[in-house]
């Protein structure tokens, strides 16, 4: 059996409301994307500020520990990890430091040790997103006495940590969710208001106009479109009323002409009957004259003989 598509009829209100809803949804989506981008930039700025402060404290702690001859930095790293939302502090010495049991450097730390430039940015981990910072520790004059062959300014270690941004992400998600809820409610409210206004100002008057046109089509010219408005709908109402009035006038004129034609027809019929009667009378008179003529002719002939 062949499938024949059917044409779906949409009301005027839906034809207006659907594009408005789509436009508003696009506006809200654009707004959410913009706000999300701004929130991410704000998170990055907050992370950079927190990382800068933490880095300063971390470096001072390490420099003080080194100046005191501390070789085991595990307690220092544990103390740093207990501060705020800092996690996974790491200290990776350079190869020339010749420290036994040194932790193997990962990709970020290897870049810092090789280039001497810091690395920072958001990363995705098992526990969610975090902001990671890896900084170089340079050789200073106080380090040369303990590390023979080291040069001032040379990268002697890479120190890094992560700032957990889960709370910030949760707050951002809650904010965006709240914005979406408010925007959704605002769109629904706006569509309801627009739909109500469409129904009261356009749909209902058009329905009345259609009713008047249908009654006129059925021959009822007595209905009046009572709508006093100075807009296109009002022009339509006045045009329908004028059309109905003109049709009534035309039909009345046709009725009068029909009556006139009927009266004239009756007069013509009466005249025709009169003419028939006159014709019969004339025929009778003609017969009488003919008979009289015959009698006169007979009398003349008798007299002549």
How would you explain this protein's 3D organization?
With about 300 residues, the chain is of the alpha+beta class. The protein has a domain of about 160 residues: Beta-Lactamase (2-Layer Sandwich), CATH 3.30.450. A four-stranded antiparallel beta sheet has the order 1-4-3-2, with helices on both faces. A hairpin with a 2-residue loop joins β2 and β3. It is rod-shaped.
List the keywords.
305 residues, Beta-Lactamase, 4-stranded antiparallel β-sheet, 6 helices, 66% helix, disordered N terminus
Order of helices and strands: HHEHEEHEHH
Give the strand line-up of the largest sheet. Answer: 1-4-3-2
- From the N-terminal CA to the C-terminal CA, the straight-line distance is 113 Å
- Nearest-integer average pLDDT: 74
Number of separate helices: 6
Spans of at least 5 consecutive residues whose pLDDT stays below 50 are: 1-9
Question: What is the percentage of strand-forming residues?
Answer: 5-15%
Q: What is the makeup of the main sheet?
A: 4 strands, antiparallel
Number of strands: 4
In CATH terms, the superfamily of one domain is PAS domain
**Helical amount among residues, as a percent range?**
55-70%
Indicate the CATH architecture of one domain.
2-Layer Sandwich
Q: CATH class of one domain, anyone?
A: Alpha Beta
CATH topology assignment of one domain: Beta-Lactamase
Judged by helices, strands and strand pairing, the structural class is alpha+beta
Task: Give Rg in angstroms.
Answer: 54 Å
Overall geometric form: rod-shaped
């Amino acid at each position: 059996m062949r499938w024949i598509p059917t044409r779906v009829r949409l009301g005027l209100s839906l034809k207006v409301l659907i594009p408005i809803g789509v436009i508003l949804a696009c506006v809200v989506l654009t707004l959410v994307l913009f706000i999300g981008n701004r929130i991410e930039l704000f998170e990055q700025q907050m992370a950079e500020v927190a990382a800068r402060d933490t880095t300063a404290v971390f470096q001072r702690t390490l420099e003080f520990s080194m100046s005191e001859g501390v070789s085991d930095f595990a307690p220092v790293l544990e103390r740093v990890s207990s501060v705020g939302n800092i996690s996974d502090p790491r200290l990776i010495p350079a190869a020339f430091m010749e420290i036994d049991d040194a932790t193997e450097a990962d990709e970020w730390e290897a870049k810092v040790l090789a280039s001497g430039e810091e690395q920072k940015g958001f990363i995705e981990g098992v526990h969610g997103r975090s902001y990671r910072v890896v900084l170089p520790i340079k050789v200073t004059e106080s380090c040369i006495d303990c590390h023979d062959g080291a040069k001032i300014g040379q990268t002697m270690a890479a120190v890094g940590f992560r700032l957990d941004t889960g709370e910030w992400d949760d707050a951002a998600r809650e904010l965006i969710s709240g914005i979406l809820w408010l925007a959704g409610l605002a769109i629904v409210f706006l569509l309801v208001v627009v739909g109500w206004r469409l129904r009261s100002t356009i749909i209902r008057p058009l329905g009345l106009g259609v009713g008047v046109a249908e009654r006129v089509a059925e021959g009822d010219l007595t209905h009046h479109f009572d709508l006093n408005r100075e807009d296109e709908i009002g022009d339509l109402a006045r045009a329908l009323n004028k059309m109905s009035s003109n049709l009534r006038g035309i039909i009345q004129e046709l009725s009068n002409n029909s009556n006139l034609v009927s009266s004239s027809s009756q007069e013509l019929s009466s005249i025709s009957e009169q003419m028939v009667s006159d014709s019969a009378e004339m025929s009778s008179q003609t017969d009488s004259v003919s008979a009289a003529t015959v009698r006169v002719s007979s009398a003349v002939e008798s007299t002549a003989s």
